[in-house]
Amino acid sequence: xxxxxxxxxxxxxxxxxxxxxxGTTEAIEAxxxxxxxxxxxxxxxxxxxxxxxxxxxxxxxWVNEQYKKLDDGLAFSIHLNAxxxxxxxxxxxxxxxxxxxxxxxxxxxxxxxxxxxxxGAKADTTTRWKRLGWIRDINPWSCLIEIxxxxxxxxxxxxxxDYDKIAWAIYSGISAVxxxxxxxxxxxxSNSEENMSSNNFKKLNKYxxxxxxxxxxxDIELLKKRNKKLKFSYPYIMLACSxxxxxxxxxxxxxxxxxxxxxxxxxxxxxxxxxxxNDLYKEESLAYLIYEGWRCGVMHQATLKKGFxxxxxxxxxxxHLHYIEDKDRIFIHxxxxxxxxIEAQKMYREHINNSGDANYINSLYSHLSNMMQExxxxxxxxxxxxxxxxxxxxxxxxxxxxxxxxxxxxxxEVSNVPQEQMxxxxxxxxxxxxxxxxxxxxxxx
Length: 445
Ligand SMILES: [Zn+2]
Known about the structure:
Layout: E1 4-9, E2 20-21, E3 24-25, H1 26-42, E4 46-49, H2 56-66, E5 74-81, E6 88-92, H3 97-114, E7 118-123, H4 133-136, E8 141-149, H5 153-161, H6 163-177, H7 193-225, H8 234-252, H9 262-272, H10 284-301, E9 308-311, E10 322-324, E11 329-333, H11 334-355, H12 358-373, H13 377-389, E12 394-395, H14 404-409, E13 424-425
Parallel strand pairs: 1-4, 1-5, 5-8, 6-7, 9-11, 12-13
Antiparallel strand pairs: 2-3, 6-8, 10-11
Helix pairs in contact: 1-6, 3-6, 7-8, 7-11, 7-12, 8-9, 8-10, 8-11, 8-12, 9-10
The structure holds zinc ion (ZN).
């Protein structure tokens, strides 16, 4: 199948706007998603766009005049469902395994990323017309997606709150069909590489300030204040190792399908950057041991692996990374290790800030940005519905406007929404205290 995507926003802006509900129409919403999808797809595909003024018959004719063969590409049409229900589905040519596989790949990926209920891949013969023209009458491979229900207010809100995410999810689905890794658009606001990199540069630094300076390093400082009381000095190791993982991932990418995994990126940071603080960290064997013996030991078995011992005050700092001969162990001064990490990441950040290399900055930011996109939506939604069903729900102080009743009225699943008196609100008395939570890209602006 050729890398050509023939994109169609369902219905048209002339005589058939499709379903209409909640102050909008299928055509309007499909066009919005389509417009977000184009630049994403153009990174890996030839993209052809069916003109918006054509109706279904004319659209099919437009496609078939240019694309004669089955393998000429994938014709993809975006629709919104209506008629009571929620979630997304995709249609395929009945009794064709490849067509079914295409639809299934796209809808699974799409729902995984967006969190919409997955109604599955469905044969076009299961529709009320017993056939779909877009599927049956078009020359190349084709797929039709119903991205959500326009007449379900929750569905529609989820769509309208984040068209970028919806487009990204479709793009990821189509990319999966072609076995291509989707590429994040690093910036929508500007296409100049220099502007993009200066924006990404700011966001990277903002991220480091928020999640390294304000969290990991602050917690290390807090521990340090009561250092002599710490028997269990692993928190230093855990905090430093999580930071090492992060910086390794920023440089080398986090994804498993990418070039590196946590082991290689972790060891890279130890050798390359902690090695500037203490020559011993340049040793491959030590980087290996820190990963396997300290990090994995503490994370997996609540103690170091055999051959190490640690304390943050029992022996002086000068004994850090010394061999205790009579015990046949290597000594780690865990506070020293944490401080070595703090110094190393300072140097690494200076190196980033002084690089002046737009491509480098953009690639670092795209690694970070990909990491922030990672989602666990299916399981997340599964467990949220369990919590909701048991009314284990509360609102954070920032959203305590008291409007929980109003959103429920337009929703068909009112039974799942807890009653007002069951919602526990947290007191809004400590503005300094923020919960730890994963980053959102908007926070970095
Ligand atoms: Zn439609």
